[in-house]
Amino acid sequence: MPVEFDEFDIDGPALFVPNRHRDKRGVFAETFRNDDFRDVIGEIDLVQENQIISTPINTLCGLHFQTSPYAQGRLVRVTQGAILYVAVDIRPRSETFGRHLKIELSAENWYQLWIPEGFAQGFKTLRPETHVTTKASNYYSPEHDFGIAWNDPDLGIDWELFGQQVVLSERDRHLPRLADLAPDMLGAMPPIRGFADGQRFGASAR
Question: CA 22 from chain center: how many Å?
Fold first, then answer.
């Protein structure tokens, strides 16, 4: 699956870039191999796959997370179009609690972003008719599904709107700020797994 993976300034997330084989017919790539994934991430099973099709540009989804025992890690990929993906560290005892990373994922760059449990996640579409697929480490549970306001001023996320309006669901318009969530709602911080030396390629959190 990966020809490389990247680690961020926030422990846990990783970036995969599949190896692509090109010839006159087009492109072939192994976009997912469970053995390669687990070699990098550890003993984690991906049990549910979702597809999102966002028609308007500047559609914004998030920031969402599930609580224990249905907390989810997600492997995210764009198959058409492009998104700005954001993940906020909400692990209560994490040294980077409240910090976020953001990265562009597109059909052209083939990036696949792994975000483990303990993060609130969301994205903004950069092009119309964008298709996003996610593989999750746990099943969707409506009773454990929560979120944080995308524009929470304490998070300081630059969504790069440049004066444009976002397209939001009614639910996402009324999500609370991170500071308004009780610590016990966020749950226990999952263990932070270190990466081997020499496996950092210079990506950073913002």
Answer: 28
